[in-house]
# Entry
Amino acid sequence: MIPVTRTFLPSLDKYQRYTAEIFGRGQITNHGPLKNELESILREYFNVKHFFLVTNGTIGLQIAIKAANLQGEVITTPFSYIATTSSLFWEGGKPVFADILPDEYNINPEEISKLIGPQTSGILATHVFGNPCRIAEIQEIATKYRLKLIFDAAHTFGAKWNNSHLMQFGDISVISFHATKLFHTVQGGGIATNDDELAEKIRQMKNCGHDRFTNIAGPGINAECSEFQAAMGLCVLPEVENIMYQRSLIIDFYKKQLASLGEKIKFQQFNPALTQANHAYFSVKFHSEETREKVIKALNSKDVFPRRYFAPSLNKLNYISDNQSCPVSEDLANTIVCLPLYVGLSDKEVTMICDTIKSSL
Ligand SMILES: *Cc1c(COP(=O)(O)O)cnc(C)c1O
# Structure
């Protein structure tokens, strides 16, 4: 069976050395030394002023939305994983969907401008598949209208724009370290900000509202990262450069194999200038939903399971009551598929996948 992704697992020996340490100390969560170590390495890696590990990316988004006080209408992208919209909705915000750019798959700054009104409190944008949004344009809009800007940077490990890691942008950026992501801590995530005030709020909110002493500063939730999660992160981290390189080779091989299809298929999205990609996903887009379904069916019959990332277009969710229209995102959600991509996927397997696609078109 070939799934869309396979979690990278480090050497068991190495992980066991960490778990032996944890058992020896007896401290298994809340500010343990491994969590502190991983947190400070990643703070430096992302080159941000404040960075907090949390138990997963979704709770990271919810905390970011609360800390930045996004209320009322929040302009967001319809093309992302469900957690982008559900966390906003869960926190009481009203998602207002700005359609995406057809070749970049990220939120269209011009559409954002059209939707700003008196109820708008912020912008929540996703760097889809680790490829940067039009960061400068979006930041300019946020500054002009005094809106808070949060980036769902779930896919961005290792990705840069203008020589800066994508976690550096916006008022707050949130990354996911879920097992399906390029770098993982089993489940996990992180919140980054360069704003001292927001950082203090986030620090308290993720720890049930405790301040640095014994007082309760305000309402909070438990989003603390455990030592076992941090240990996994410390084991995977030294491998991550190689993980990205291996994945880039697989993507190159896919592109070569699929080149003969010409206009029948569109590879991965267009990256804005100054992008340094992280090769987190390999998406392909077909001309119609019918063609995509035909290709998926053919692949499934060979035990290959690509995924419809991301469908449905989030403006079409059943709990979003008003009928907002985002034709570009809706078309993409109907025609895109992410092909299998993970370290260990062989050339032979990629060739079989590509041959199957070719013969089904
Ligand atoms: C994975 C993901 C999340 C949620 O992260 P978890 O760690 O799985 O909770 C949020 N947004 C996007 C775009 C994602 O892909």
